[in-house]
Structures are given as structure tokens and as C-alpha cells.
Automatic annotation (TrEMBL):
Biased composition (Basic and acidic residues): 91-100
UniProt xrefs under Pfam families: DUF1244
Region called Disordered, residue ranges: 81-100
Stored InterPro entries: SMc04008-like_domain, SMc04008-like_sf
Gene3D superfamilies assigned: SMc04008-like (1.10.3340.10)
Domain SMc04008-like as annotated: residue spans: 29-94
Name recorded for this polypeptide: DUF1244 domain-containing protein
């Protein structure tokens, strides 16, 4: 595969945008389930976005990065879509807690 760096960056950005749209649409999937199954969640993705902004000297707050990923203020998303974690979800999280 020979793709120049600029094109690869554009492809990666497009994939990121599609992932963000997908996660916004799948409000039925809880962050704790994502963490337990994939080792990352919407909050991780927003943290990675902020880390990338910080590394490039781009001003972005934690709230701004979360709003970008969630499509609304985080507190609004939590109130609308986040359920209390079950005992089983919490136990799985404690067993599999990612180290990032």
C-alpha cells in the first residue's frame, strides 16, 4: 500500500469522524460496556482528542473535547442516556480496568 502521509491523515480523520457519529447514534451502548468490551469509551476518545490538541498547542478544554465527541455537553448526554451501572458491569470493569 502506497498512500502519501497527507492522504492517510485524511483517511484517518474520516474514520474518526465516522466513529464519532456512530457513537453519537448508539446512545443505547453505555460507556461502561464499551470499556468492558473494548477497553475504551467516549470519554477516552474525548481525552485522546484533547491530548492531540495539547500536543499541537491547540486550545481545547476537557468540556470542549467531550462536547465534540458526545455532540452535546457531557452532563446533558449523561442525563439523557447514561444508566446507573449494574453490579455485574462494575465488577467486570474492576477486573478489566484499562491502564490508559
Amino acid at each position: 500500500m502506497t498512500i502519501d502521509e497527507k492522504t492517510m491523515t485524511e483517511l484517518e480523520a474520516a474514520a474518526f469522524r465516522r466513529l464519532v457519529v456512530h457513537l453519537r447514534e448508539r446512545t443505547d451502548v453505555q460507556n461502561i460496556d464499551l470499556m468492558n468490551l473494548a477497553g475504551f469509551c467516549r470519554n477516552c476518545l474525548s481525552n485522546w482528542l484533547k491530548d492531540a490538541a495539547d500536543a499541537r498547542g491547540v486550545a481545547m478544554s476537557k468540556d470542549e473535547s467531550r462536547e465534540h465527541v458526545y455532540g452535546m455537553p457531557y452532563e446533558d448526554w449523561k442525563a439523557r442516556h447514561q444508566n446507573e451501572a449494574t453490579a455485574e458491569q462494575r465488577a467486570a470493569f474492576d477486573r478489566n480496568r484499562p491502564q490508559h
